[in-house]
TrEMBL record:
<dbReference type="Pfam" id="PF13835">
    <property type="entry name" value="DUF4194"/>
</dbReference>
<protein>
    <submittedName>
        <fullName>DUF4194 domain-containing protein</fullName>
    </submittedName>
</protein>
<dbReference type="InterPro" id="IPR025449">
    <property type="entry name" value="JetB"/>
</dbReference>
Amino acid sequence: MIEYYEQLMQEEQEAVTEVIQLLYRQTFLLERKFDKRAGRLSFVKEYRTCSKHLEFLKEYFKVAGVTLYENAHMGLIYIQGENLWGEKLPRLATIYLLVLKLIYDEQMAEVSSSSHIVTTMGAVNGKAGDFRVLKGLPSPTEMRKTISLLKKYQIIEPLDVLEELNEHTRLIIYPCINAVLMGDDIRELLNTFNEEENIGDESAIQGHLEDMPE
């Protein structure tokens, strides 16, 4: 494994090191992310580096008890492991995460040619309202804070200015959401928020998310 790395040119070694640090820091690598200046999805160079050296990187992370996965169809590379810990999500962020996954799955079933889905804040709050998991519409400040948090985890990418956030604000839902909530029954989890004894209680859902790495 070390021999493979040492045979690389210095520039390539630095690129591989950067990818390792990036995966530990943000968990996911997307093949394409939205470039606001270009106004379109653009390829991510770190993803290409990771894909090129995938077998070496799998062995590297394996030593640390971490598994490296690639989903070429979704354009996603990510790590998972029991020793990777993330922060607890606030109630609204957890609700939005589940709703976004539901919207993502519904739209993917209709348009399977793309791994990226676009929705709006109005659709997200409307879907949450359908499940009666919000007492009322969150304040603009609370919504902006929550959207910023989910953007940090590369779950979504706002296409419009957050300072002007409203029901028409567009959001790209990245395929990272599949790695966070893979295999969960989203509707059932959302229904737990509709039970009176769980109002204001995050514990009903966070057991499913506590292994979400930072």
